[in-house]
Design goal:
By secondary structure, this protein is an alpha/beta fold. It folds into three domains: 201 residues, no CATH class; 157 residues, 2-Layer Sandwich (Alpha-Beta Plaits), CATH 3.30.70; 187 residues, TIM Barrel (Alpha-Beta Barrel). The chain is 61% helix and 15% strand. The strands form three sheets. Strands 8, 9, 10, 11, 12, 13, 14, 15, 16 and 17 form a ten-stranded mixed beta sheet that branches. Strands 2-3-1-6-7 form a five-stranded mixed beta sheet, sandwiched between helices. Strand 4 and strand 5 form a beta hairpin. The structure holds ligand C2E and magnesium ion (2 copies). The site of ligand C2E has 24 residues, from strand 9, helix 13, helix 14 and strand 13.
């Protein structure tokens, strides 16, 4: 059984049969020219007036046919070159060409009984020529029938023969008209359908050569199973072009096809090689993103990034055919699949529902199936826009959290950034630092923090008590990996006049994942100026001790996560002990952060850690309050 709708190949089949009839015209037109010339030069004795009329009429008929067929040949050839050709134009041209055969056949048989028989034969030969492009067996059979008919005709009596010739000619013309248009069309359409069916079986969409629905389902099933085994999430994007019907209706199916092909290419270019782009049929596409990590939130963010990229690319203008410009948009529905989740059908349904929500919301949009997820993403987008504005408008302040020694004296402070948002109030860095990193804003924000800290250092340098303090600045690994980071710091120190020996940069273990040689070169260059380094949140990330040994660190910071339960959890205590021992063996100082109780401090002191930071001493304070705290004693 053929699964593809007949209508799907109608255009292509009509155009192909038109092309085949045109091939018969290549013979037919010159043949008519030759005949017209032949009758023009036909020499008849003067007294045979009947013969003169006969020759003239035939000359006229062949001339007219020659002109008509030549014209049609040119016109049809030109039409065939058009990119947006559809079935109705092709069928109209076929009718015109076949009507020429029909009218000619009838006319010639009434004008010339004697030659008519031969011409009828030639006419049928044309039909056969047209058909033979398709079916050799049919051609041979038609040849046989024609020969038999001509033979029959020749052995009839004079009168009977005349009648037979006329009938045969008429028949031949009708056969031509019907056979050429109908049979060729249907045969070709059937072979096309068969080919399509084979392609469907092979898992490929014939137009775009993308995987088809069947293939996608297969891959999706595998991806969901694999995801469940590896514990990774993925996303399914249902993409539907907006108002695609319009282009088909106004510019023809060919143009629609061109657009679909172009969209397919753009989709493929928008995703990683490992992802799947499939065409479900019509203007519906699906993109399957695999391996998006183990956390659904991050999968959603990645899916969002890809969808935005797809929307952007689809929005670019299309050049269809020779010069026609077209604009198109799409709506995208996104369903996420987590390791322990649902069936493939359910997943497709979710993506479909989400796509309709995107259409409802005004098209050229994407929507997540999960409403909550959508809300979170919207909030994030709003926050990102706010953050950009905040950086522009300078809505940030630094607070300073004291670091104390065993005697409780403040010897340093950590600069911690806060966002003074006009509506949200004071926003903690945990809520915007990761966002700034992802949005590529951390460089600018980090620079501001650095400048502000150095300005503060320079200002305090004039006050005897404050001038003794070291200020720590958090540097995110994104910021540190900037090519000109060393220059930036050097410039800031120069411009503010801050003492580099009072500046300490807090790095996290994540810098070690990056190019260690680069990290080392940067650290050494900064160290040479007198800047200190502290390894923040030590023990929570990935640390290679052999790398750590090579880096010019000054201090390890025991993460507050280990300090919190240090009295209750033996593991935390063991880790703290290990960090302290490690710092000791490497000749580094060690500081514990998040110290909230004196019991914690005493325990840490017993382990050999004598520097502390935490609410027990003070939370982060605005510059003035911090200054007051330090100078109070
Ligand atoms: P961090 O560098 O580990 O900073 C220590 C965090 O612990 C600070 O949170 C601080 O307020 C908090 N803290 C201090 N003492 C205690 C305590 O006794 N108990 C508890 N539970 N918490 C305490 P904050 O200010 O919210 O900063 C969070 C993180 O944001 C920082 O962690 C740091 O990674 C990042 N951050 C802060 N400012 C900057 C900055 O200017 N640049 C960059 N790149 N990151 C920053
Ligand atoms: Mg820190
Ligand atoms: Mg920390």
């Amino acid at each position: 059984m053929l699964n593809v709708a007949y209508g799907a190949v109608q255009d292509e089949a009509a155009i192909e049969s038109m092309r085949r009839i045109l091939v018969t015209f290549w013979f037919f037109a010159p043949f008519e020219v030759v005949l017209a010339i032949w009758y023009w030069n036909y020499k008849v004795p003067v007294e045979h007036t009947e013969a003169v009329v006969w020759a003239n009429s035939l000359c006229l008929l062949h001339t007219m046919t020659a002109v008509a067929t030549s014209l049609l040949t040119v016109i049809v050839s030109r039409i065939l070159r058009k990119p947006n050709l559809n079935a109705s134009t092709a069928i109209t041209m076929q009718v015109l060409m076949c009507s020429t055969y029909l009218i000619y056949g009838i006319a010639v048989s009434y004008l010339d009984v004697a030659v008519g028989g031969v011409e009828a034969f030639i006419l049928v030969c044309f039909a056969v020529a047209g058909l033979s492009l398709m079916r050799p067996l049919v051609s041979i059979a038609l040849f046989g029938i024609t020969l038999a008919a001509v033979w029959q005709m020749l052995i009839l009596t004079e009168d009977g023969r005349q009648l037979a010739i006329m009938r045969l000619n008429t028949l031949a013309a009708v056969v031509l008209a019907v056979i050429l248009s109908a049979i060729i069309f249907h045969q070709y359409a059937r072979s096309l359908l068969l080919r399509r069916e084979l392609e469907v079986l092979a898992g490929q969409d014939p137009l775009t050569l993308l995987p088809n629905r069947r293939e996608l389902m297969d891959r999706l099933r595998k991806a969901v199973n694999l995801g469940a085994r590896l514990g990774t999430s993925g996303a399914l994007l249902f993409i539907d072009l907006d108002h695609f019907k319009n282009i088909n209706d106004t510019r023809g199916h060919n143009m629609g096809d061109l657009l679909l092909k172009e969209v397919a290419q753009r989709l493929v270019a928008s995703v990683r090689e490992m992802d799947t782009v499939a065409r479900l049929g019509g203007d519906e596409f699906m993109v399957m993103l695999e391996n998006l990590g183990d956390d659904l939130d991050s999968a959603a963010r990645q899916a969002k990034v890809v969808s935005e990229k797809i929307l952007r690319r689809i929005n670019q203008p299309y050049v269809l055919g020779v010069s026609e410009l077209h604009h198109s948009t799409a709506s995208i529905g996104i369903a996420l699949f987590s390791p322990n989740e649902l069936s493939v059908d359910e997943l497709i349904k979710q993506a479909d529902v989400a796509m309709y929500q995107a259409k409802d919301a005004g098209r050229n949009l994407m929507r997540f199936f999960d409403a909550e997820m959508q809300v979170r993403l919207n909030e994030r987008a709003a926050m990102e826009a706010d953050l950009r504005e905040g950086i522009e408008k300078g809505q940030f302040v630094l607070h300073y959290q004291p670091q104390v020694d065993s005697a409780g004296a403040v010897f340093a402070a950590e600069a911690l950034v806060r966002w003074v948002h006009p509506q949200r109030g004071l926003v903690e860095p945990g809520q915007f630092i990761p966002l700034a990193e992802e949005a590529g804003l951390i460089g600018e924000l980090g620079k501001w923090v650095l400048v502000t800290t150095c300005v503060q250092l320079a200002r305090w340098a004039a006050q005897p008590r404050m001038s003794q303090l070291v200020l720590s600045v958090n540097v995110s690994s994104h910021q540190f990996s900037q090519a000109d980071f060393v220059d930036q710091v050097t410039q800031v120190l120069l411009q503010t006049g801050a003492d580099p020996r009072r500046l300490k940069l807090e790095l996290t273990e994540s810098i070690m994942i990056r190019n260690v040689d680069d990290v080392m070169a940067k650290m050494n260059a900064l160290k040479a100026q007198g800047i200190g380094f502290s390894l923040d949140d030590f023990g929570t990330g990935y640390s290679s001790l052999s790398y750590l040994k090579r880096l010019p660190m000054d201090e390890l910071k025991i993460d507050q996560g280990f300090v919190r339960d240090i009295l209750l959890d033996a593991n935390d205590a063991a880790i703290a002990r290990m960090v302290i021992a490690l710092a000791d063996s490497m000749g580094l100082t060690v500081i514990a952060e998040g110290v909230e109780t004196s019991a914690q401090r005493d325990f840490l002191a017993e382990l050999g850690c004598h520097h502390y930071q935490g609410y027990l001493f003070s939370g982060p304070l605005p510059a003035q309050a911090f200054e007051a705290l330090v100078t109070r004693v």
